[in-house]
Specification:
Layout (H helix, E strand, L loop, with lengths): L43 E3 L2 E3 L5 H10 L7 E5 L5 H8 L3 E6 L13 E2 L16 E7 L8 H11 E12 L4 H9 L8 H7 L7 H11 L2 E8 L6 H18 L13 E7 L12 H8 L1
């Protein structure tokens, strides 16, 4: 979070911004003295408003909504940053309710920001509507203390036959796998990232899909987006390693873009008859996964 920073827990972690977006973990308890920066500078803008997410993420999310809904539907945007994606969705004709931890860097004059902490227990009570046609959480869930409970709240906030879009760092991409093999950490989930960006929840696509199924969603699509920022020899190494990963993984992860894109993008659907009583049991989900 720019302009509202605590003291760094350990000065060996450098104070630099990165390409990340969304809410931050609260800094009380064990990490009360650590600095967490929740909006990194990317040098990219939409209508003059800073974009904090990786290149391609906002565009992909906007296309997912545009291809499914007519103009005028309601969208709840969680972790709205400075308002760039809000602006893009308004331009597409959607009615957007943006929410973020604070309004210190909010620059969108066309939409009023709801201020709430997604790590709190009752943040949904700050919303005017009980449900929305689309609920989106872009680069948010990795910052949260209880991702499973968060997904369950998203289910409640999604209208019948509505969709929920969640993005998070893709920890199974080639770059992340190389880091795990050589450094023992995932991309964007090192010890430094933990203290610097508040990335505290590692969620590969299959785990996020499972959470969604458990709370009652069906999976409409799983894709991968977001530029990794590699160029030259480094890009070549990643491309070659991605080929090796495809051979090793076989049919286990037969998903386009898994190896060469930095962000997971999952679109969940809430079926009209999927209420609390008809949600699939955990046992049934485990059986279908075998």
């Amino acid at each position: 979070m720019e302009g509202a920073r605590d003291t760094l827990l350990n000065d060996k972690f450098e104070n630099k911004t990165g390409s990340f977006d969304g809410m931050i973990a609260p800094t009380h308890g064990i990490g009360e003295n650590r600095e967490i920066i929740h909006k990194g500078e990317t040098g990219r803008y939409y209508n003059g408003i800073p974009i904090h997410a990786a290149e391609g993420v906002h565009e992909s999310v906007a296309e997912e909504l545009r291809s499914r809904f007519p103009k005028g539907v309601t969208v709840l945007e969680l972790g709205a940053g400075s308002g760039a994606l809000t602006e893009r969705l308004i331009d597409l004709g959607f009615t957007v309710t943006p929410l973020d931890l604070d309004d210190a860097t909010w620059q969108n004059r066309r939409s009023k920001l709801v201020v709430a902490d997604l790590n709190g227990d009752e943040w949904e009570n700050s919303l005017d509507a009980q449900q929305y046609d689309a609920v989106i959480a872009i680069e948010v869930i990795e910052h949260l203390q209880n991702p499973r409970r968060f997904v369950e709240t998203l289910f409640r906030l999604t209208s019948n036959n509505g969709i929920c879009v969640i993005t998070t760092p893709n920890v199974l991409c080639a770059r992340s796998t190389i880091l795990m093999l050589t450094k023992g950490t995932f991309h964007l989930f090192s010890q430094r990232d933990y203290f610097r960006t508040g990335h505290i929840s590692i969620l590969p696509h299959w785990l996020l899909e499972t959470m969604g199924k458990e709370v009652g969603f069906s999976i409409e699509s799983t894709s991968f987006t977001g530029e990794l920022g590699a160029t030259g020899p480094r890009l070549l190494v990643m491309w070659m390693f991605s080929l090796i990963l495809r051979l090793l993984r076989g049919n286990a992860f037969h998903l386009k873009g898994l190896e060469m894109n930095g962000n997971t993008l999952i679109v969940f659907r809430k079926s009209p008859d999927m209420d609390h009583q008809t949600r699939p049991s955990v046992r049934n989900i485990r059986s279908s996964a075998k």
